[in-house]
Amino acid sequence: SAAEKGGWSSFMAKEISEEPEAVAKTLLGRITDGTVHLSELDPIGDEVLANVDRIIVIACGTAAYAGMLGKYAIEKWSRIPVEVELSHEFRYRDPILNERTLVVSISQSGETMDTLMAVKYATAASAQVLSICNTQGATIPRESHAVIYTHAGPEVAVASTKAFVAQVTALYLLGLHLAKSRGTLTAEEIAENAAELQAIPAKIDEVLVVSQSIKQLAHWMTDTQSVLFLGRNVGYPVALEGALKLKELAYIHAEGFAAGELKHGPIALIEPGQIVFVVVPSPRDPNSLHPKVVSNIQEIRARGARVIAIAEKGDAAVLPFADEVIPIPLAGSLFEPLLAVVPLHIFGMELAAAKGLDVDQPRNLAKSVTVE
Ligand code: G6P
Fold first, then answer.
1. Residue 254: beta bridge partners?
2. Is residue 258 within a helix (H) or strand (E), and if so which, with residue range?
3. Is the CB of residue 105 below 6 angstroms from any atom belonging to ligand 1?
4. Non-local CB neighbours of 299 within 8 Å, separated by 6+ positions
5. 367 counts as catalytic
């Protein structure tokens, strides 16, 4: 009903507006005095956790893209090797698991059958299973050794939005927790990264304001047949998530690519008028891939692409080459995805709305897929 939507045109519009809160509530009580506390991991225990030599993240859909972001952060901070795999692929390939493997499942609903079966498989193979879940008391957390709840609040729209930013937040907290217990980051480094996380909600608020221009853009694009998304490093999962939202909501063929892969194939798709979203990393980071992504933009522009760049506020290098720039606030490079994904969620929703589609209930999809 209209009341349940709290005055918003759809549950999705409401849920995207709640992205700042989804992050804030997931952080609540888990960072104090600049350090991370995850008592949720107690059932696994420090000793077992200290022996973990490999992490496998399993999930489906949007949750799997959150998992990919988790890999970048957890590996960087804790130096534990992380793999990310779709639950339905993991389960059927005879994966190598033992007591030193930590399997991290991610599921908003906690009921996705593919992920549940993978969790059961992993526990049977004596791996430790930690689940990141948004639904209290769901089946997946009950089948796991430990659970970190995301506190995004109930998500009603079929396509996941606010749960994604909450899942990334939980994974980053896990990364910092592991770095703390292994001593791979100093106390100062943990405090800096924790502060970056705590600053995210206010920054998403800023992104929600500037993203209003996306609505106009979506209205001009109702006849578009195909949209590409490019990103590098942590921008890559963001590109995949942007493409998934467009398929799910607007029924438009969309693909996300790692920008470095452009020259190995996808650039052949570029013809005049092709819309390409590019997630641009910050130019401030000394190891930044910024110059490489800017040169990707030049390459596709030279072939007639229309470029919509999501770039850091004040990034002057991008301006001459992009048709449209969506500015995001300054953040540490691992944290940029939590900001850059927001305009892409809005874009998918607005384009679907402009096409007159039901953004909350896209055709052929279910909120939680309880069959394998
Ligand atoms: C369905 C939804 C997606 C979601 C995926 C995983 O396919 O349409 O939006 O990302 O399931 O759901 P889960 O509840 O496991 O996060």
1. 227
2. strand 253-258
3. no
4. 262, 263, 267
5. yes
